[in-house]
Amino acid sequence: MITGAFDPTADLVIEELNRRAVPVFRADTAWFPSRLAVAAGLDGSGWRGTLATDRRTLDLTTVRAVYYRRPTPSAFPDDMPSEARAVAAAEARRGFGGLLSALPARWLPPPGRAADAEYKPLQLRIAAECGLRVPRTLVTNSPDAAKEFAEQIAAPVIYKPFTPIRGTVDGRSVAVFASLLRAGDVGHSSIATTAHLFQEWVPKAFEVRLTAVGSRLFAAEIHAGSAAAHADWRSDYDSLTYRVCEPPTAVTRGVHRMLGQLGLPYGAFDFVVTPSGEWNFLEVNPNGQYGFIEQATGLPITSAICDYLQGTDT
């Protein structure tokens, strides 16, 4: 398991694998090279060698699966010159990271595929190709284009960041969520500063988090209990209620096709369901959180992940 030091989702999987008596070696790429040593040689049939910390040693030939969660970058001494740090970081990524990717193991998810799938414009195109309903969308840094888009669709417009944006301002934790825009904001001059994603607002009865693990799908309705959560449920978890649901056949088919095109064994899909029952695709996270859904609904997602890693999912 490759992930950061604090990862409750990874903890769930490790607990279940421990219950199944499956050996787990957990490490973070930040440990390399100061707290994680690698020594591996190619003998013609594959890479043989070890990963070692000061407490444990892993035989690379025994690795059957890799759960690639949320690792952090390699760490180097503070007094290392910036030029040397840049070179060391690149060599660590291609050398250490390359060795891991060369292991003949089952990955959840494959790092390269997961990185590609993070691009929302790519997701949206593939979702539409796979038969999923996608809201009208604009990517632009032109205030005039944004204003024209809003005028053309003649409907409320929502802004969404391409990546999770969190930070600290004046000592306070802040985050940028999806926001329903007022008419005057759609053509604001600040749009010119970078790429922005605008979508038509889809009237919602509720949203759905659909978690796909291999061929298995786990869907849960998410009902917002506040105005903020109605715009973006991530902004007010305390107001949410959940209910297990069954996705329509067309959505199930589209999700499986999309995972196949993206080359992903796992995806956390978000949908808006309209009052008339239409499912609209919003995004897929190739390594999204699922623990809050499992805790609220009892859906056996952790078990499905462990089945996939063990190769017992078929």
Description of the molecule:
The strands form five sheets. A five-stranded antiparallel β-sheet has the order 14-13-12-15-16, with helices on both faces. It has a four-stranded antiparallel β-sheet with strand order 6-11-7-10, covered by helices on one side. A three-stranded antiparallel β-sheet has the order 1-2-3, with no helix packed on it. It starts with 7 loop residues before the first helix and ends with a helix. Helix 4 packs across helix 7 (249-262). The protein is 31% helix and 26% strand. By secondary structure, it is α+β, with helices and mostly antiparallel strands. The longest helix has 20 residues, at 82-101. A hairpin with a 4-residue loop joins strand 2 and strand 3 (57-59). The chain folds into three domains: 8-108, no CATH class; 115-133 and 203-310, ATP-grasp fold, B domain (D-amino Acid Aminotransferase, Chain A, domain 1), CATH 3.30.470; 137-200, Dna Ligase, domain 1 (2-Layer Sandwich). The model has no long low-confidence stretch (mean pLDDT 92).
Keywords:
Dna Ligase, domain 1; 4-stranded antiparallel sheet; globular; 3 domains; 5-stranded antiparallel sheet; 314 residues; alpha+beta; 9 helices; D-amino Acid Aminotransferase, Chain A, domain 1
Brief synopsis:
By secondary structure, this protein is of the alpha+beta class. Helix content is 31%, strand content 26%. The protein is built from nine helices and 16 strands.
